Amino acid sequence: MHEHLRKSLDQSIPEQVRLKDEQKRAIVAEAHRRLENESPSRKPTLKPLIATVAVVGLAVFLGVPYIQNEIGEQAIEELAHADALQKVSIPGENLTTLINAIYVDETKEMIYSDGKRIYAFDTESSTKEILVDGDENISGYEVAANESWIVWKQEDVEGYFVLNRLNGEIRNIPDELHGMRIEGDQLIYTSVSWGDVWLTRLDLTTLEQTRLYDKLQKMYGQYAFGEGKLVLGDPYTENDPNQVPFSVYDLQTNQKIGSFVFPYESVYNLTVSENRVFAELYNEGDEMATLGYVDLTDGKLYTVETPDFVTYAVYRDVLALSTPETSSNTVELFKIKNNKTHALPVLAHIQERLVRPRFTPEGILVVNVENAGFYSMYVVDANKLD
């Protein structure tokens, strides 16, 4: 009977409230106790169905303090983070167009391409501006942008284009590039020519190119940069193939900061944050990744206790995880404290599936909404989640 009463209690409380099992048991038990002790000298005259209704009614009454407390806590948490969350909807665009949208911290714009043009959408005024208008096919995967520069690749056109947003000048650079990213006035990309692969830095103000490192001599595909640092995977050592070595360089001076090791067999998705190098770590037989980081101050590896996740993004101590659900996954936010994750309720009320979490250099999280009817994005200011 108690199980039936608990189900009835579940149906009677607000949908957004989640009472713990021990709270439910306490409410139902107290309801029984009060009914039984209310008139001990009288014989019970209530029929089972009426008695059940009476118990449930009293249980709901007794549960009010729990419900008020639960609603109060949720309201306080949501209110505290309300100014950190913004929904961005761009009419007429779809997920394919927006999945690689770039948020520019300084101008609060979303930069994206629909395949023929490159747009800037102002997230404050909801106005859209055409930055590049052309008939050629522009892949959203090959666009890099910040407040001063737009770099893009057009199909069937040799090289790539650089737009100076300050004066409107467009330059064509006759070079092949892959995986480009902008940091300040520097463009970092992978160059490929006649079987040779290397990392290149281009000064966008002077167009001076610097060949950084031959990637074929490094761990191919494993590199990241941020906060003025460049992280490159080094070749596996013959003596210990179960470790992944990497080196860190100063992006401006090209000087080596140090050599470090991830003591795991496989490493993916390198990220630089607060003098730490984060990564998804795997050993043979692992079904899910372990999230860990090497602190560049002491050179030690630290692992973070997380729920199962598919991918991650991190900014300082704010962590976004794509966590598995019944048949899919969605993005949740956490705070890292003492290398443990503590859930943040910022995105919890969103019913749509959220995909592709990424942080900007200044801590703005961007996630895309995957929905059959419309396509939007959410931006979260991690600096307001203290």
UniProtKB/TrEMBL annotation:
<protein>
    <recommendedName>
        <fullName>DUF5050 domain-containing protein</fullName>
    </recommendedName>
</protein>
